[in-house]
Amino acid sequence: MLYNVLLIILIVVSVAMIVLILMQQGKGADAGAAFGSGASGTVFGSQGSANFLSRTTGILATVFFLVALALAFLASGRTIESGSIMGGAATSAPAAAVETAPAVPVSDVPPAPAVEKASSSEVPAAPMEKTPADAEKPVQEQK
């Protein structure tokens, strides 16, 4: 019961935090108000809503973390019935005759053509590349 109550509180606090964060103005909004484009008389007073919204967001964030920690503590004490999948299968009704898979897979895709030997190909073989060890060997001059 306590777990469900804390879960509801966590959801309400998180929605309230989202709303309060979206209501706050950015840092650039203060520069516009200094040149006369902003309204100085607002619902929250002449100083604006910064103090009220900031403090309320901080309080809600603290409550959010405390409730989340309490939920984690309560959830750690819960035990989940452990068992294996095979144990549940053994108690169920025995399976009927097991069907075997067909020897040839049924597919709409045709099989790939057989690869021919490389010797019958008309394409010449690629030259062998020199390895770094071969590059370091000195070349002898012919006289």
Automatic annotation (TrEMBL):
Gene: secG
Residues that span the membrane, as ranges: 52-75
InterPro entries tied to this protein: SecG (IPR004692)
Record's protein name: Protein-export membrane protein SecG
Family: Belongs to the SecG family.
Highest taxon of source: Bacteria
Pfam families per UniProt: SecG (PF03840)
Function comment: Involved in protein export. Participates in an early event of protein translocation.
Location in the cell: Cell membrane
Membrane topology: Multi-pass membrane protein
Taxonomic source organism: Thiothrix lacustris
Segments of skewed composition (Basic and acidic residues): 131-143
Protein's UniProt keywords contain Transmembrane helix: yes
Keyword Iron: no
Keywords, sorted A to Z: Cell membrane, Membrane, Protein transport, Translocation, Transmembrane, Transmembrane helix, Transport
Region (Disordered): 106-143
